[in-house]
Amino acid sequence: MLESRRLRHFLAVYELGSIGRACEKLLLTQPALSKSIRQLEDELGVRLFDRTPMGVVPTVFGNALARHAKSIEVQFRNAEAQIQSLKGKAQGHVTVGIGPSVARNILPVATRTLHKLQPDIALTVIEGLVDDLLPRLRRGELDLMIGSWPPIADPMFITETVLVDRLEVVARAGHPLAGRPVLRSELLNYPWALPPASQKWRQSLDDLFLERALDPPKAQVVSNSAGYLEALIRSSDHISFLPRQLLDLENDEGLVTLDVEMETLEPEITMTLRERALLDASICEVVQVLRSIGADFTG
Predict the structure, then answer these.
(1) CA geometry: angle at 13 spanning 27 and 4, to 5°?
(2) What global pTM score does this model have?
(3) Which terminal residue of the chain, N or C, has fewer Cβ atoms less than 10 Å from its own Cβ?
(4) Could you tell me the domains of the chain?
(5) Which among 124, 160, 156, 125 has a CA at the least distance from the CA of 138?
(6) Low-confidence ranges of the chain (pLDDT < 50)
C-alpha cells in the first residue's frame, strides 16, 4: 500500500519540477526527499521522473500517478475541511496578496471580521501590483490575491468579482478646479501624479481624452506607492485618477473628487486563487469573509 507521506513528497516534486524547491516547501533535506522518491519508484517498479540539468521531468508513469495522487490529496483535504467545519473552528495560516485599492478599507474590515469568527487563523498580507503578485500566486507563495485588476485568464486559477469600485479624478481640497464643473481639457493645465501605465484603468484614462481628440495627460510623477501619491496630491496642485476604495474620501476633508464631464469608469475588484485552495478550511473562511465584505461595500 502506498504511503500518503510519499505521495505528498511525490506531488511536491511533480508540481514544482525541482527537488530543491520541493525540499524548501516540505522542510526536508534533499537526501531525505530523494530517498523517499526512490522508495516510491521501487515500490511501483517504475521510474517516475527523468533527471535533467533543468530539474526533474515526469515520465509517463509519473503523470499517471500524479492524476491519482491529486485525487487522493483532494479527498484528504476534503475530509480535513469537513472535520474542521463540523468542529466550528478553523486553524491555519493564509497568505494574501493585495492591491493598493483594498489596503485601506476592504482588507482591514475583512481582517477584523475574520478574527471575530475565527481567531485561530493567522494572516500574512503582502501588498503589490498584479505583475508582482501573480507570479507569487503561481509559485504557491500566496494562497489568494485580491485587487483592482481584470479577471486572470488562466485555467490554473479561478477568479471572482468581490465588488465594483469607481475611478475618480482626485485633488486636494482648495484646488483651483475643485467645487465646480470641469472640462477634460482643463485637466491638462495641471500636473498629474499617476500609478504605472501597466495598471489597466490607467490605460482607460488615456482613452477618455483620446475620444475627445485630446492628448492624454502626461504624468509628471509615476509611482506604485498609494501613500506617496495621496501625500503628494494633498500637498500640491497635482491631480490623479484613483479608485475610491484606495482613499477614504467620505471621511477625508483634505481630498476631493473633481466634477469632470466624463464617463464613469467602474473597475472590478477581483479575488483570484487556485481552485483546490478552497479545500483548505482556513482559506475557505477568508474567501467567505471577503465575499461578505464585498457585498456589504457594494450595498
Answers:
(1) 75
(2) 0.63
(3) N
(4) 4-85 (1.10.10.10), 90-162+268-298 (3.40.190.10), 167-260 (3.40.190.10)
(5) 156
(6) none
